[in-house]
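Tokens for Helix-turn-helix transcriptional regulator. Go.
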Amino acid sequence: MTATQTGPAGRMQIARGLIALRERCGLTQVQVAERAGVSKTTVSRYEMWQDRARIRWATVKALADACEASAEEREALVQVAKSQTEGWWVGNSAVPEWLDPLVSFEHEAEYEHLYANTVIPGLLQTRDYARAVHQAREVRSPDDEIERMVDARIQRQGILDRDPALHLWIVLDEAVLRRDVGDREVMAEQMAHLHDMARRPNIDIQVLPFSAGAHAAGAGHFVILGRNDERNPLNSMAVVYIEMRRRGLYLDEAEEVTAYKLTFDYLRSQAADASASLRLLAKARQELTS
């Protein structure tokens, strides 16, 4: 198991591990609590990654021992607990609290699959485009606050340059290319940026054209973040993020994640392929500069 370094992603890894150990032993949360000398509330809290309370490695050790974990299993979970650190975004006023888990998961994920039907996703926005988006959404925020939000968004994009690289696969509804955000110059620069980013080996961009008609998503923006480890399933991760107004919804139940993965597979099949999508991006830019 690889020690996870950032908040919610690490808590999810610990929670998944403790649940798996408890279920393997056929114990209830009450029974684990009695064995570990803690309250049932504590057991429940450690099995829920959404809880923001501090994780204590001694408690993780006690819970693992209560579930008859092997020395290797116990040590792996304890090391994750000991390695917990907060990322640059935690406590940053420019990053809303409900977005903390998304940025954390991005730092631990191997891949990110994303469908967008309103605006260019934040990871691929230019600075001017990002500024226009925030100005539209945060109409009562002062300019200096808007700039801090833009700076945070650009800093978040650094995840695309890490080693090993995050594999980003995006399906963009054609409406995103046609919706003017900022002026024509901002849009032209944004289209050129998308075209350039689509040529990177770790980024795939497909455009879902209007001609595709009704499609699998049926709704709005969603993100699937994951990490696969066949040798150690407990080190794997899969979560869906659904963007809402001033809050985000995170889904990690296997059935729900599988449903969104299937939806994304259908969207990829309905969208234009990589070459055709590059042509659509180039055409959109040409129309903006002609």
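Confidence is low (pLDDT under 50) at residues 1-5.
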